[in-house]
Amino acid sequence: MKIQSYVNGEWCSGDGRTDTLVNSVNDEVIGEVVSLTSGFDQILAHGRKAGGSALRKMTTHERAEKIKFLAKYLLDRKDDFYRVSYMTGATKADSWVDIEGGIGTMFSYSGIARRELNNDTFVVEGNVEPLSAGGTFVGQHILTAKEGVSLHINAFNFPVWGMLEKITPSLIAGVPVIVKPGTVTCYLTEIVVKAMIESQIFPEGSIQLICGSVGDILDHLNEQDVVTFTGSASTGRRLKAHPNIIEKSIPFTMEADSLNCCILAPDVTVDSPEFDLYIKEVAREMTTKAGQKCTAIRRAIVPNNLIDPVSEALMKRLQSTSLGDPQAEGVRMGALVGKSQREDVIAAVEQLGQSSEIILNGMQGFVPIGVESGKGAFMAPTLLHCKDPLNITTPHDVEAFGPVSTLMGYDGIDQAIELAKMGKGSLAGSVFTASRDNARDIILGTASHHGRMLVIDSTCAKESTGHGSPLAPLIHGGPGRAGGGEELGGARAIKHYMQRSAIQGSPMSLMAVTNQYVKGAELKEDRVHPFRKYFEELEIGESLLTHRRTVTEADIVNFGCLSGDHFYAHFDEIAAKDSFFEKRVAHGYFVISAAAGLFVDPGLGPVIANYGIDNLRFVEPVGIGDTIQVRLTCKRKVKKSKKPDDKYHTGVVIWDVEVKNQNDEAVAIYDILTLVERQSDD
Ligand code: NDP
């Protein structure tokens, strides 16, 4: 079988380097990849021209919707992916992380984008910045999709998740992708891409796949392209230093190997629940994916007085891990992805073994379940003990990318922190402790060297997502040795593929660019109340100035009785005189309730519901006898897609609300969100 690439709208093979791909469980040949040797400039051009221009016409929400449809499409075909995933040596649990974890990331991002980004072809970021005393010159950041492609050079260990976690933010940003999977497991990536192309959910050119070598593609990248890399630090450094990448300042996100640590804090004893949790987590991280995880625990940092009980408990647990064919009954740990990877791991263990004692040797003397003798790329868990970790640097430098970890002892929290930092930058670190002080000291002492950290105690362990799981809303990446990159982390991952520009000008110009009301821009008033208008009929900048209302003592008394809020500033004449306000004032919540009474049009109409309030500030007090008036202005509109159970087609309208007093001073400012009916369907 030929594993193919999908480029320029067709599936094809090249005439270059041939890689034979082998089932890592039984050594059977799966197929071969013949690398492309030329035409990389056309592949990039196809992505930019066909994919990029089609993607940039859609809004962020439309692209996010497509990601959701694609995720559903892939989920329906997951059984096909699992079948192939076993050939990589992954167990069902490992494959779940790769396949359903990857698809889950797509669902998460689809939601994040629709919740947090405006529904336009570009993104408006942050607040309008006042830049002049008279308010006629203001600034605002916007982000537009880069007009290039994003090239994702991925590692072999997560052929599905590794692709999906990167292409999802890029496609939502409006940037087409070219995926280059690690060759040894690219047959799994290929069948997932086949399903994506077959779905026709994204326009042609949005998704391309290059299996095998990427030839001279880096020479043809331009200033609008982006590269992400996951793999070894040495390859990453080499690619990052490519002359074309440097010359054109092409963003290069690198996620490289790291020596992640897991610290058992000094408050824990063998009888504490955190002791057992620690043993379970270290063993789980060593055996999941046969330890081929960028976030796996490589350094188990333990108080010196607990080294013996920890090593005994850990060895017992690791020895009971059943190793073998991932599809055989009872197997908990599968194979490494290939024999050459196993050779690399063994070489790394031998290097580590020169300065640490191998206390559990998984390189020999085991019989994998359901596997013919001598077949497959198996290796059992291997545990080392470094007796002088503050002076021996090898366990902090050498990563054995397999089921391998090194125990190291410490005396006192300062030493634990020093050891953690000797990794020179990691993707993930964890602390097992029931002491809040230890948690704070260790996290604050080591966070500068980590992209993500967990504190595990008995109250959160059951629901914890674990040391090694990157999650869509949280940063994945780490400083220094870990590559210095950031992936995931919510909407910021989408923005990575966009250009942020500061736009300065008059409120009117900014409003024209961003399609959002900017204070100081011209207002449009109409005889028809805005609450009587359908979503489509409302214009940005459309505004209503209400009638006025004088606040009386009766208002304060009534509101206090209704709400039960009898705070002295509203009810105690003497205390109020001594207070900050020097008089009795109305409740802030009365002011916004009274404001609603002023701006609402009460009759049945297209406004369906009050959705909430954002950015509320009470700017000035409202006293007895003050007169308030409200300006309500249509600030932003977000069209919502109708779900099957929804009664109406709707959109959310965000209104700028300003409540002023008789002196034209703002007393309260905020945004209200209303759900408004649409006349047109999707
Ligand atoms: P590599 O760094 O060798 O390869 C990573 C990716 O880069 C692969 O897709 C590889 O393709 C590609 N690549 C290699 N050379 C070039 C080149 N000259 N131009 C363009 N692309 C290139 O890492 P491996 O995948 O072999 O893994 C080795 C080590 O990486 C592991 O032992 C581990 O230490 C680390 N690693 C880190 C991970 C992380 O998430 N941080 C994940 C996985 C591995 P090809 O496969 O065709 O060589």
Automatic annotation (TrEMBL):
One of its GO terms (molecular function) is oxidoreductase activity, acting on the aldehyde or oxo group of donors, NAD or NADP as acceptor. SUPFAM superfamilies: ALDH-like, Thioesterase/thiol ester dehydrase-isomerase. Keywords: Oxidoreductase. Residues 11-499 form the Aldehyde dehydrogenase domain. Residues 539-643 form the MaoC-like domain. InterPro entries: Ald_DH/histidinol_DH, Ald_DH_C, Ald_DH_N, Aldehyde_DH_dom, HotDog_dom_sf, MaoC-like_dom, PaaN-DH. The keyword Transport does not apply. Gene3D superfamilies: Aldehyde Dehydrogenase, Chain A, domain 1 (3.40.605.10), Aldehyde Dehydrogenase, Chain A, domain 2 (3.40.309.10), Hotdog Thioesterase (3.10.129.10). The keyword Transferase does not apply. Coiled coil: none annotated. This is Phenylacetic acid degradation bifunctional protein PaaZ. It comes from Aliikangiella marina.
